[in-house]
């Protein structure tokens, strides 16, 4: 058991730090959830990609550095410590890309991944529907066979970033006669600007169009944009969900940096002792999450897959993130009420954490049933 | 980086777990709490034979240590089985004696501590304010320990004494932990500013061992609660099938599994902020699990007769032993280190 880094790891970290120091914008970009901010963040992705820092753990042929999991974690620590911008391509990079690596074809990877790495194509997710949230397998949007491909119909909702994104991926019911709800689903990629797609942005709590409804009316998708076999979508998507809940969605570096910023805010306020314990809990939680992730990464590198324990990870970071930002707004006092500040932007973002990527209630069911072995019951 | 226990460390945990499972520790705890020490001493010898105390004793004093990671592995198992006795105090006393500038006391006491022939207890009177060291005002199991160390500190120097036998025990919320007032006087073993440094380092080990012990207590409480709600039926079904019950246990698991890496990580770094973080997190997770365990067991869990009580009361006691939650958080805040 050790936490030591090799000289090559340290050199990688130093290289990332040096690049970030000379490239991170000195003033924050406009909010990612606005048209102007989306474009600015897309340009930042291109800048990262030009020096192969946008997807360091990907293979070099798709724009990465073959850095591996440990160095990806180190990169993330440096990235967030440097105060670098949010990642506009995260849905694609953390959800679709792992699926393509595991289930896609060589042709799909070559076609999709390079433009994802540069931010030229930004991907949105299309999972939830008005009647299918936590019970995702009950989804009703359909994919109907047609010559050379499929015709998509129905409605998707809560599609993060879809207001400004280029393409989307999700599950569609291709066999309505399958005996069970999670059978007969197909995993597809489609163009948000294709004929038959209507994108209606939804304003989140603070009014910014962070997600959207998608109305699909006979949207043609060629066969080459089906991932895996038709009808196998649920199994493929669940491996994506495992990735999503697992290591890649929220790196420890993000929370280590947030906790240090909170400590800085507390100190700038004169270190009020009555808030000390909450600040300490933020520092401790970030360290716990970092070490938990190092342990998970070590198991992963030993050849173990990320199993139901990824539900622990998802609950932890989502609840931690809110607690940290509540503390920050409380420390700010009356100023905490102001919108469009860095703290308020991050606070509003954090509030969605326990809801998306599988609600925390679903995660607690998974922990109870699959880690602790408790009997299934009525939900 | 490979932040995982290796095969040897896992095998050590498994063998201790097997040894302690076979030892019927609940009946040992009940004997111990009545002042009947025979079964506890026999168990102590077996724990010593497994090498636990030798892990705290340096090799030059016939030990195997210091091996903080292996000690945390051992203390998780000791906590899991609610083993009674001055476990933390004995390993901490060994570390303290080994760190003294004068090798005399180490040569005198460490060999018998490593073999389990003797037990040690340790008290620390309140240090100067802001020192960051916890207070240990009561001598745990001082009737069983023959090496009773007391540390008193002034702003300038610390003094270590070998205290005389104690008086009567004070009533304790955890009957398995027999508390005694600090006996005054006794032979001076060491004095000086370097003693204070050695105490500071030893106390860090006490805090870490307590964190690991608390984690083990919490894991046992979770296991027992899961087993109980799987078999206890109401409304015709196991109560463990109800979401209100499941989610409480999921939260207990969450707290304990995020404490575990802090405990092992602190053993690797021995950084005061890491150790304090491990202590507060493991103890609060164990304490929260105790509350859940009590609630899910219902009235049977509230009885002294039912064995769950042995872990419930220990979770409460360990929470403040060798550093309260607030003291630990203060150490985290005072560390300037960026993790």
UniProtKB/TrEMBL annotation, chain A:
Cofactor list: FAD
Coiled-coil region list: none
Gene3D superfamilies: Acyl-CoA dehydrogenase/oxidase, N-terminal domain, Butyryl-CoA Dehydrogenase, subunit A, domain 2, Butyryl-CoA Dehydrogenase, subunit A, domain 3
GO cellular component: plasma membrane
All residue ranges annotated as the Acyl-CoA dehydrogenase/oxidase N-terminal domain in the record: 6-120
Record Pfam families: Acyl-CoA_dh_1, Acyl-CoA_dh_M, Acyl-CoA_dh_N
Acyl-CoA oxidase/dehydrogenase middle domain span: 124-219
GO molecular function: flavin adenine dinucleotide binding; oxidoreductase activity, acting on the CH-CH group of donors
Keywords per UniProt: FAD, Flavoprotein, Oxidoreductase
Ranges for domain Acyl-CoA dehydrogenase/oxidase C-terminal: 231-372
Family designation: Belongs to the acyl-CoA dehydrogenase family.
Protein's name according to its UniProt entry: Acyl-CoA dehydrogenase
Source organism (scientific name): Streptomyces dysideae
Organismal lineage: Bacteria, Bacillati, Actinomycetota, Actinomycetes, Kitasatosporales
TrEMBL record, chain B:
Cofactor (UniProt): FAD
Pfam hit, one: Acyl-CoA_dh_1
InterPro entries, per the entry: AcylCo_DH-like_C, AcylCo_DH/oxidase_C, AcylCoA_DH/ox_N, AcylCoA_DH/ox_N_sf, AcylCoA_DH/oxidase_NM_dom_sf
Oxidoreductase among keywords: yes
Top-level lineage group: Bacteria
Residue ranges occupied by any Acyl-CoA dehydrogenase/oxidase N-terminal domain in the UniProt entry: 7-117
This protein's record includes keyword rRNA processing: no
Domain Acyl-CoA dehydrogenase/oxidase C-terminal: 203-325
Record GO terms (molecular function): acyl-CoA dehydrogenase activity; flavin adenine dinucleotide binding
Alphabetized UniProt keyword annotations: FAD, Flavoprotein, Oxidoreductase
Record-stated family: Belongs to the acyl-CoA dehydrogenase family.
Name of the protein this chain belongs to: Acyl-CoA dehydrogenase
Species name: Streptomyces dysideae
